[in-house]
């Protein structure tokens, strides 16, 4: 049985989109995988997924992109409990604190 995998991402320059596409292509043996830009994603895309990939570059002061990705993350906070989640992104992550902060936010939701 193939898990339902949704890859949801935001990309400003195209680097994170390339990462998302690589994940998608690497999962091509699974017929239940979808690649979704965050501006086209909704809470149902989260609810239906067994495994959820979330991608976003760090922005400015090592934060999520604020106009699309941050609101999306807030909108799904009640729906990610028990989900297998993989975080990915590009740009400068400093010493890794940005990814640790994002992971901590996910843990608090789940």
TrEMBL record:
Domain Flavodoxin-like: 5-110
Top-rank taxon, per record: Bacteria
PROSITE patterns per the UniProt record, alphabetical: FLAVODOXIN, FLAVODOXIN_LIKE
Parts of the chain that traverse the membrane: none
InterPro entries in UniProt: Flavodoxin/NO_synth, Flavodoxin_CS, Flavoprotein-like_sf
Pfam families (UniProt xref): Flavodoxin_1 (PF00258)
Protein name: Flavodoxin domain-containing protein
